[in-house]
Design a protein that fits this description.
It comes from Oceanibacterium hippocampi. By secondary structure, this protein is an alpha+beta fold. Helix content is 48%, strand content 7%. The chain contains seven helices and four strands. The chain starts with a strand and ends in a 15-residue tail after the last helix.
Length: 203
């Protein structure tokens, strides 16, 4: 398999984290979105939305949207529960991540890491408020649970961890969310864990 990804993308990191947990080898192809490499005709043929990550399967087919890729890769593994209700709970968290957490925490992080904070200063409070609301939901769940779904670490945790663990880059004080911080530490302590900056050599 081949993963088209941008080194600083939390969405791409989610895929790298699961692949490491599965022990699945893959080829890494760096796509520098800051240089417009996701807008070339070659990349748009793989994903018309022009977004990373994109997974190229062994048979040449392509799959986009990070949480769809997580589901595809994790099927039949310990990272997705067998019980249909638990599976639906996983999907619930995946939707939450893309609709409530990522649009706020990831966007604030991108603006602050790539020199856009001043230009976006009028919109940052809105993103910080939305991100804080998402973190509050996580905090409530994780006060009494080690993992987001059931009793084991799975792709719900991976999906939410991708940007949550890096929320400080977007101006969020994670010390305000002790249950979330403890969960972040648990994820980081998992066997085979890779950090966001542990990017494979690009091919």
């Amino acid at each position: 398999m081949r993963l088209y990804d941008f080194y600083d993308s939390g969405n791409g990191y989610k895929i790298r984290l699961l692949l490491a947990g599965l022990g699945q080898p893959y080829e890494y192809v760096e796509i520098d979105i800051l240089k417009g490499e996701s807008r070339t005709p070659q990349f748009l043929a793989r994903n018309p939305t022009g977004r990373v990550p994109v997974l190229e399967l062994d048979d040449g087919r392509h799959l986009a949207e990070s949480n769809a890729i997580l589901w595809y890769l994790a099927r039949g593994s310990r990272f997705i529960p067998d019980d249909p209700y638990r599976q639906a709970q996983v999907l619930q968290w995946l939707f939450f991540e893309q609709y409530q957490l990522e649009p706020n925490i990831a966007v604030a992080r991108y603006w602050m890491r790539h020199g856009l904070a001043e230009a976006k200063r009028d919109r940052l409070p809105e993103k910080h408020a939305g991100g804080a609301a998402a973190l509050a939901v996580l905090e409530q769940r994780l006060r009494d649970h080690d993992w987001l779904v059931g009793e084991t670490y799975g792709i719900a945790d991976i999906a939410l961890y991708g940007y949550t663990h890096a929320a400080a880059d977007g101006g969020f004080d994670l010390a305000s969310w002790p249950a979330v911080t403890a969960w972040i530490d648990r994820v980081a302590a998992r066997p085979g864990h890779v950090r966001m900056d542990d990017v494979p050599p690009a091919n």
